[in-house]
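Record type: ASSEMBLY
Status: queued
Input:
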Amino acid sequence: MTASIVVPALSARSVSVRLGDALIVDSVDLDVPSGQITALVGPNGAGKSTLFDCLSGALPAESGSIRLDGRDVTRSSPDQRSRLGIARTFQHVSVFPTLTVEENLRVGAEHRENLQLLRALFRGRRADEPRTPEIVESVMQRLGLLGLRHERAQGLETSTMRLVEIGRALCTRPKVLMLDEPASGLDDAESDRLRALLLELASEGLAILLVEHDLTLVGEVAQHLCALDHGQVLASGRSAELLALPDLVSLIGGTRSRRAAR
Amino acid sequence: MTVTLNLALAGLGIGAVAALAGLGLLVTYRATGVFNVAFGAIAVFAAYVNWALAVRNHWPVGFAALFTIGLLCPVLGFVLDRFVFRSLRLRNAGPAESIVASLGVFVLLIGGVTILWGRQTRLDAPSLVPRRTLRLGGDVVVRLDVVVDVAIVLILLLALLVLERTRVGMLARAVVENRALAELTGVRADRVSSLAWALGATLAGLAGILIAPLVRLDPFGLTLAVLETMAVVVIARLTRPLWVVGSALALGVAQSEVTRLHLPGALGAVVSALGTNLFVVALIAVLLIVRRLEDAQRPDAGSTVGLATRGDLPTPRYWWLPATTVLAVPLLFSRESLVTAQRVPALAIIFVSIVLVTGYAGQLSLGQAGFAGLGALITAKLANGSMPFAGQIPSLVALVLAVVSAALLGFVIGWPAIRRRGLFLALATFAIAAVASKFVFDQPYFTNGISVPTLTGFRSARMFYLLELMCLGIALLAVQNHHRGRLGRSLQAVRDDERGALACGVNVRRLRVWTFAVSSGLAALGGALLSVSDRSFDATAFDPIIGLIWFAAVVVFGIDSATSALLGAALIVFLDSVHSDISSIVIGVAAVTVGFLPGGLLYTVRRVAVRLTNNVVGAEFAGRRAAVAGEPSLRLSPAGREIARRLR
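Status: finished
Output:
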């Protein structure tokens, strides 16, 4: 094995998060390298989603530091982090229901810079940068959303909403893509497409962090694994090695998809 | 020493009343989930009925009170629940709409009171308790009714204990938390919430009848006692009954002691205002300064998603025609009617500012009256040369400066206020309007001898009307820019899902403060034009209650449509010109039916029209949707047709 030094796109060092009196995440270290997929696994209540919220800025870290490409973002707000290159989806799918699919993606695409309020006020529509429509177009094409572009998001099926949410995240042109249980609510075929998409995105150099219950999917796509329990890191390392440990797998208590059971 | 003690005891009286009303409001909120803005109005209504029965009809005092509290109030509560709030609950309407509905109740009750018994102040409200005083040794005197109030506060605390600790109380809270789930476990939700409403109305009535003899009885004054109530409830963070009592008593005593201070000049005016308005100051201080008020609130409280209608219906081709006609026709009027019509564009600008901040940006803002009044006052003072540190300024420049300074003020106040969500933001904005009204508009120091200027170059009625139309045009342009393009999408995204918007990099806080500031500036513009068209600065025209009515009106006509706001303003001015009280009654009636009018009056009319005129177009539309989604066209079995027929 060649000794190449991988600089992680996103790295957390001894991050702790407290909700009320409870310490939900307890000095966790986590690296999310570019061009690879890292999975965050663990039983319910292990603190995965809390850590996720802390990394994306929705919750403040009590202690520790979070770096994005070497830049300290521990105190940055969620919107700042998004502009710096962290995109995320949510466990309960979050789209803008009254906007159309295309508008959902545009909102993602046009805030890579801070909103220039005065410019937007006086020039209205033309405040869009020239590249925004192209980004939206290419992401819609890639995710197969072109036919639905003028549909409002609130009537869509869950699986389509998940795609819109991922598309919106991609439109922010992130360095790190964080997906919270992207496969929940998807059937086997959709989950296959998702897997292919994730691998393709990673091969383009995106750093992907995944929270996922489906260990089969995790085993198929993730190079790295970080197992949490009670807010602490149980194990982290190469996913193939960790998933070979039966004790760990049963402790994580994840599910295996129907496809694997057959 | 004796003076201090006597003042303290007098303050204790006011404090006990605030504690009483505050606990009542808290009980209603906990038991029904509705922050009942009409709580004070129910109290006023009950007090008036009680007064009418006892003084006019010469019923025995005790009997009149028993009838009012024991029969009238519970029935009123039941009716409100059944016919106003039930429909909102059934379609899971957000708290924004229940606030509007309770505003409607407020407007109707107060309107009813003024129509039945007039606006004048009554000093002869009957007291349940003999107006005797107890001597506690030496010169220390305590009024007997204060003792009774304290006893009632204790009874109310007991009621809260029941709500928190017993089965019935638990059922009521379960229904508030999650009605559907409560029903699944066998709770009769309708019955529970009717009971809660009956109880809440009874508490309000009791409070009203007890307060009336302590303060004077007039339709608006007593309602603002609701500000005191709001203050203590907010200090208690809507959850802690003991805090209600403690803060009410403490503020009552402190307010009473402040009256001993006498200072000259502007400072003296402020201090003397403190002597009657310490609660308002406490309210705004808590809302602007304290961090983490929202913890106790349900997460969806204050969501305005239910009010949005964007894109549900195709925009009609000639959508601009009705509004343009309504605005253009007055130019053909005689001078006299034109002067009346001058109120339309001014009011429309204020309404449009509400559309911007609440409809487009999704923030409940009840304080536009404050900014409108400031706009009027600053314009007048600058143009008169009576503003300190400024000479006489040409009136048009004064107007522009007033708008800019109101926007800046909106920015400064907006920064801390915007941290609040939903209900607390609504209260904070209302408190801002109340402070402006109590500490500036009502103070002779600021408003004595104010004369409103005519605008140079726009003296004739026609020219002024044209100027107003121009201002309205600018306002509409600014607002439209917040509805389209990148800015519009961002606001819509924030309103739909704030977390998601943040994750997209939308700077939510800046966006909010910005819209708040722009809308404050617009409100000031409208207010200034309103006062110029009225030829006078009238503090009552910018009363916070008027602001509430404006808000209700905009929601009723359609909160996210500038066109609706415009037509609404025209309708209100027209009704006002026919008779002075009709417009508020119309707004009230429409507001209590807001449960049946999702999206507002105009939107409902359009929806019905679309359904009636062209089922054909509708079918075509549905067909296109189906084709886009790649669904095969629907084929129904006989059973399916039967079900479809029943559903229709």
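Annotation: Residues 188-203 of chain A form the longest helix (16 residues).
Annotation: Residues 8-28+42-69+214-235+247-262 of chain A form one domain.
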